[in-house]
Each structure stands twice: as structure tokens, then as C-alpha cells.
Amino acid sequence: MFKIIEKKELNPTVTFMKVSAPRVAAKAQAGQFVILRVDENGERIPLTVAGYDRDRGTVDIIFQIVGATTEKLNALAEGDNIHDFVGPLGRPTEIEGLSKVAVVGGGVGCAIALPVARALKDAGCEVHSVVGFRNRDLVILEEEFRDVSAKMKIMTDDGSYGEKGLVTDALRSLIESGEQYDRVIAIGPLVMMKFVCRLTEEFGIPTVVSMNPIMIDGTGMCGGCRLTVDGKMKFACVDGPDFDGHKVDFDEAMKRSSVYKDFEKHAREETCRLLKGGNANA
Amino acid sequence: MPNMRNTKNEMPSQAPDVRNKNFDEVALGYTETMALDEAARCLNCKNSPCVTGCPVNINIPAFIKKTAEGDYEGAYGVIAESSSLPAVCGRVCPQETQCESKCVRGIKGEPVGIGRLERFVADRHRKNGSVAAERPTPNGHKVAVVGSGPAGLTCAGALGKLGYDVTVFEALHTPGGVLVYGIPEFRLPKAIVAEEIDQMKELGVVFETNTVVGRTLSVDDLFDDGYEAVFIGTGAGLPRFMGIPGENLNGVFSANEFLTRINLMKAYKGDGDTPVMHPRRVAVVGGGNVAMDAARCAKRLGAEEVYIVYRRSENELPARAEEVEHAKEEGIIFRLLSNPVEILESENMFVGGIKCVRMELGEPDASGRRRPVAVEGSEFVIDVDAVIMAIGTSPNPLIKSTTEGLDTERWGGIITNDEGLTTRTAVWAGGDAVTGAATVILAMGAGKTAAESIDRYIKERG
Ligand SMILES: Cc1cc2nc3c(=O)[nH]c(=O)nc-3n(C[C@H](O)[C@H](O)[C@H](O)COP(=O)(O)OP(=O)(O)OC[C@H]3O[C@@H](n4cnc5c(N)ncnc54)[C@H](O)[C@@H]3O)c2cc1C
Ligand SMILES: Cc1cc2nc3c(=O)[nH]c(=O)nc-3n(C[C@H](O)[C@H](O)[C@H](O)COP(=O)(O)OP(=O)(O)OC[C@H]3O[C@@H](n4cnc5c(N)ncnc54)[C@H](O)[C@@H]3O)c2cc1C
Ligand code: SF4
Ligand code: FES
């Protein structure tokens, strides 16, 4: 059992939790993830390690409520326990030897991008952050990104905050204004990563993306997380989650992520019904 | 006087067209009358050829004799001297190629139903409430076991009985290895595995689930934490794919994924949150136990047509004979001498069919089996909406890549000597992690051998 030490709402659909998991905290590095199960019958879902405190033995997770499991997780309160919490899984993001990097985050992908940006800064790298959200209400982690970034751009689809436009617009203008990046690290929805990669390919900038396919075990046992990179089959949980974005088959990955769509929709409706029912009785 | 009937007592089972719609156990087990009758078929041979066929040398005539006398606890005691998981092995061992293949009664008729008797004795022992194992006096030495499949469990149990302070580290959230995530409920009820694990806990063995060695902890960390020896029983869990076009379509699964969703994640009970596809028509590629299990699970989830696609012929099917038999009775269709060449897409990345080519058996290959060769121009398509790949697994490279001095074969198997000692001091290994995908009983045997070696090593060090 893994106790929730702290919980806060970052925006109406994104929640932060600090979880007591000393062994994970002792080993975690930026770019790695955990797999958790909320309860005895729960699904195993992967979430990135958004931060850790080795001394206190805690690990931070930031998750968007998108379906049944994240809904259930969000229903837990400070002091409650998460049934299973295993990690750190996957390979850490490579940060050594980089002197200037653009970190591009989209939506909840910012939660995954933040620890990477932080690790880069700690390693002495100049970080430029480009973060995008649909609108003002969904903006998360703004302060945290400012703390680690030499330059920062916030984009919203509707212009209700920061600049109006897509992260690719902002990235293009940075590059065209003469910024020279050793690398771009893009983390967010698959479409966003795909278009960032298209852009950086144009300029020949090496680009790393963090893939988030459906996973079960996270140890290489099921092959459910497989994707095609450079024409070869890779397992995201052990070979990734970071890959060379110019070599990832995004179209395939997008289709694979929708395999259980109908089931998920139904499960979420069920969970909402149950959770609401529970509240009504309380 | 022995019972000279030439046939075994049949195993009472659920009717095929009933059981292929539920996940309850297929074989129901002998009644006492059947067991006594079957035990009386044993000639109690002096040279006991059956024992030579048993990878852990269970004293088979002795346990059968006690069974015939009605001394079931005595019989259990005999088996327990050599095997730590009788209720499991009685259900899943390939007896027809082991003990029963050597049985004298098999020359003229059917061999003695050794496996069925083993299961009877083990189930009897379970039902009569086994006396809680007495906790041995702790000897003050710590041993770490990595992986909780049959190899790890056996090693942990054997050392626990000797008074070692044993901790088992398991990556998944439930211990048991393939026994819980792979082999389905209808062949091996999960409650049996859970009972075995509870008994080990009573012995004092500690289980730490959610711990991936190589990530959460390294082998070096274990030594730093005061463990004097480490046993690696991490199995061969990495699924292979064929490398044919279409393998990443939606609806193509490794058998591990499909079975894990059903078993470990409880789709079979209908009360897990984890989704599993309920395909209408399925092709399962492969001919081993894993393929049979995947096919029979698909049927139970309601698939109308389930095919086994295997490139050799019936004689070469590596699955236990009983599983093949059961699969056929349940309506699984066998497309033998057929090899997939491509998985076809319907729309939007879902599977629409599987294109295969017919095979012929040619000259024997390195394994002594006749090599299948494709017949040119013989392509045909089976109309399916899901494909399950059950063509083998190999050891996971995670521990090797994070443990210095641990050598493996090129294909990933950990290199050990006869006692299971690896190339790294104080690290033993056994089971599928060493041999590649094999059997429960071999994994158990390796766990036991290693435990004995670990005990000697620690005693010598003092
Ligand atoms: C390595 C990795 C790191 C991730 N990090 C984060 C993070 O830090 N914050 C965050 O909000 N999300 C993260 N995700 C995505 C997160 O795992 C999914 O949002 C979550 O599983 C949804 O579960 P659900 O039951 O609430 O929603 P569902 O309704 O089940 O699914 C919604 C969508 O989530 C995806 N999904 C569903 N089940 C799984 C699964 N078992 N594994 C992976 N994806 C699944 C599917 O694409 C699906 O369309 C990460 C995913 C991966 C693979
Ligand atoms: C579907 C299926 C059906 C089968 N049917 C039969 C049958 O009928 N008869 C038969 O005799 N055999 C059968 N087998 C084969 C048999 O199950 C295996 O040979 C046996 O389980 C091997 O035991 P093991 O202890 O070596 O490994 P496993 O049972 O594979 O257990 C290894 C354990 O180690 C864990 N692990 C892996 N890596 C790590 C790590 N880094 N850190 C911590 N833990 C880790 C895994 O999660 C797993 O729990 C079947 C196999 C499958 C898949
Ligand atoms: S070979 Fe057969 S008959 Fe002889 S002792 Fe063994 S089980 Fe009994
Ligand atoms: S999640 Fe199972 S292999 Fe990656």
C-alpha cells in the first residue's frame, strides 16, 4: 500500500499527488514512470514520475482525468492508499552533454516534461520552454516552468492566455529568430509530437519524444506497448518511453492507442455513475 | 492382487460444450473410489522406471502404494519430499512424456494415471486442512529470491524450511509467475497457487511485490542490504513476434498480453477494470501449451471460431496431449502445416484476416523434427478479427543488463553450472531464465537444486 501524502487540483481535470514510495523515490530519474493500481480489481496504468524527494521517500504524480482509472484515482484523498505502485520503469531521459534545449509540452504532457526540464537545468543546460494548452483554465505548472526556463512561451488554442496558436508556431518563431538548439524534447498528445517532429526535421534538429502507448506490466512481458521506430518493433516500457521522434511511426501509434475506445467510454460512464452514487449516499 | 485392467480411470470433466463457456476447472479430479482403483493398477516395480522419467524423482511407487492403502497423508508426505507444488504439478505436468511414458503398464495398455493420482493426493491434503507448517528456528542468514514463479517459490520454500530469512521480490502485483498470469483458471485455479503462497508466508517467507529487480532495486542493492545469496528465477517472459507485415494492427496480441488481461487482470471473472478484446473469429499462432490456453480462453470469451495455426503437423505439437485433446473437444479448429505470412487490415488498423501458406515436412532439422517448408503458391486467407501470437518467449534482458558479471547465452539464457550458480559470486539462477521456456517441474527442480547449493555455500562461509 502506498499512502497519498498530499493532493491538490492543478486545474479542473488535472490533479497532483505526492505518494509515499521510498524505493521508487530512491531510484527515480527524469523521464521514468510508475505503474499503479488504484484498488484490488484496478487496471494497471502508467504515470510519469513528475518529481521525487529521495530524503522523504516521496514521488509526485500529475495526471489528467480522462477515464475510469484516473477518475477513481482522483476520488482518493490525502491519507488514502494506492494499492500498487511500481517503478521507476523505463529508461531515464538522456540529458548529459546538452547545452541548449527546447522543451515542448502539450496539455498534461507538461507534467511529463517538467522533470526533464528541471533535470536539464540542474545539469547546467539552457532550457527554453514552449507549453501549450487549449485555454486559460487548463494551464498548469506555469510557475514551475518559469523557474527552470531561460525563455518561456505559453500558447493557448483560443488565445485566452499567453499567445494564441500552437506550440509549433512558437517553436518555429524561436528557431527562425536564430536560437540554436542541440535538441528539442517534445512531450504531449501524439498529434502534437508528430507536428513538432515534422518542423524540427525541416531544420535538422535532433528531437526526442516521449511515447505513451497502452501498457500492462511495464517490464517487457506483454508487448502491448509496442510501436515502430525506424522500421523496427520496440517496446516503449523497456526501450523507451523516449525515442528519436524523426523515426517514430506516429500514425500507427495513434491508431493503436484507440483499440479499447468503446470499452473505455463505457467504463468511464460506469465509474462516474458509481462515484456519483457514492457521494449521494454520503 | 493388482488391478490388471488395461485402461486408466477416466478423469471426470465438465462436458465440452458446457465448459467452453465458463472458466471453471475442466478436470474435476478423481473420487476416492476411482483413486483406489487406479492406484491398484500399479505393479510397484522394483526398478521403478516411472521415477527415472520424473524430473524431480518423486518416489512414485511409494506414494501410489500409500494411496492404495488409503493413507493419503502418507502419500502426500512421499510426494512432498521431492516436489513442493504437488497440486500444481498434478494438473499441469506433461506426464505423458515424463513418468507415464516410462510406466510398465503402458507397454500393453495405458500407463497408470500417475498425474491424476498426484492431483488426488494433493487435493485431499488441501481439503483436509493441512496442518500449519511449523516455523523453523531462524538461522540468521538472509537470502533474496527474484521472481515468484515455480523456480523462485521452490527455492524460497526450501530455504525457508531450513530457517533462512527469505524475501521474494516480484515485479508484478501478485506472486506466482506464469502460474497466475499465464495458465488459465480452468486448468489451474488461482486459489491453489494462492494457498501455496500463503503456506510459504506461514513458514516466514516474505513477499515483496511491485519490485522490479534491475529498476526498483539492483542485485548489488540486495547484497548491500545484507542478503548473502541471490536466486534469480525471473522466467522467460519476453514475447516473440514473427516479423511479418501487419503485426502491429489492433487486434494482434502476444499470448502473454491476452492471457495476462484474462488471468492476472481478472477479465475471466468479469470484475476487473482492465479491458480485453472479445474477438469473434481468432487465429492463434503456435502449437504449445500457451497457444492452447490462448485459444481456449478466446473460445470462453465467446469467440465463434478459433483456429490454431501451426506450421508443423499434429505429431510435432509441443502442447501436452491432454490440452490438445481438450481443445479439440471444445471446438478449436486446427490448421496444421500452415504458416502465417501476413496479417491483413480491415479498416482503421483493425485485423481483417490472416494470410497463411501451406507447409510440407522436409528433412529433419537440428531439433530432430522434420523441417516445415512452404509450398509455393499455396497462400490462403482465414477470415479473423484477432490474431494471438504464441510462438515463444525468451528471458528478459533487464537483470543481465543491470548486473555486472552475470553472463548469458546469446539468446538471453543465464549461464549456470549444475548447481545453478551463475558467473557472478553468490548469485544463482534457475527455471525458464536459464533454460528458456520449459516446464513447471523443471523450474521447480532448478529452484530446489539451487536452494541446496545456497545452503551449502552459506554454511561453508559460516
Ligand atoms: C509511459 C507513460 C507515461 C504517462 N504519463 C502520464 C502522466 O504523467 N500523466 C497523465 O495524465 N497521463 C500519463 N500517461 C497516460 C495515462 O497512462 C492514461 O491517461 C491512463 O492510463 C488513462 O487511464 P483511464 O482508465 O483513466 O482512461 P481510459 O478511459 O482507460 O483511457 C483513456 C486513454 O488513455 C490511454 N490508456 C488507457 N489505458 C492505458 C494503459 N493501461 N496504459 C497507457 N495508456 C492507457 C488510451 O490512449 C486511452 O485512449 C502516461 C502513459 C504512459 C504510457
Ligand atoms: C500460458 C502458459 C501455459 C503453460 N502451461 C504449462 C503446462 O501446462 N505445464 C508445464 O509444465 N508448463 C507450462 N508452462 C510453462 C511454465 O509455466 C514455465 O516453464 C514456468 O512457469 C517457469 O517458471 P519460472 O519460475 O522459471 O518462471 P515464471 O513462472 O515465468 O516466473 C518468473 C517471475 O519472475 C518475475 N520477474 C521477471 N523479471 C523480474 C524482475 N526483474 N524483478 C522481479 N521479478 C521479476 C515475473 O513477473 C514472474 O512472476 C506454461 C507457460 C505459459 C506461459
Ligand atoms: S512404472 Fe508404472 S506400474 Fe511400475 S511402479 Fe511406476 S507407476 Fe507403478
Ligand atoms: S507494457 Fe507490457 S511489454 Fe511494455
Outline the fold blueprint.
The complex is a heterodimer of chains A (282) and B (462).
Chain A: E1 2-11, E2 14-20, H1 22-27, E3 33-37, E4 45-48, E5 51-53, E6 58-64, H2 68-74, E7 81-82, E8 84-89, E9 100-106, H3 109-122, E10 126-133, H4 142-148, E11 151-156, E12 163-164, H5 167-176, E13 183-187, H6 190-203, E14 207-210, E15 226-229, E16 232-235, H7 236-239, E17 242-244, H8 250-256, H9 261-281
Parallel strand pairs in A: 9-10, 9-13, 10-11, 11-12, 13-14
Antiparallel strand pairs in A: 1-2, 1-7, 2-6, 3-4, 3-8, 5-6, 14-17, 15-16
Helix pairs in contact in A: 2-9, 5-6
Chain B: H1 16-19, H2 32-39, H3 49-52, H4 60-68, H5 72-82, H6 86-92, H7 99-102, H8 114-127, E1 142-146, H9 150-161, E2 165-169, H10 178-181, H11 190-203, E3 206-208, H12 219-224, E4 229-232, E5 238-239, E6 252-254, H13 255-262, E7 281-285, H14 289-300, E8 305-309, H15 321-329, E9 333-335, E10 338-345, E11 351-364, E12 370-374, E13 380-382, E14 386-389, E15 393-394, H16 398-402, E16 427-429, H17 432-435, H18 440-461
Parallel strand pairs in B: 1-2, 1-4, 2-3, 4-16, 6-14, 7-8, 7-14, 8-9
Antiparallel strand pairs in B: 5-15, 10-11, 11-12, 11-13
Helix pairs in contact in B: 2-4, 2-8, 4-5, 4-8, 5-8, 6-8, 9-18, 13-14
Bound molecules: flavin-adenine dinucleotide (2 copies), iron/sulfur cluster (SF4) and FE2/S2 (inorganic) cluster.
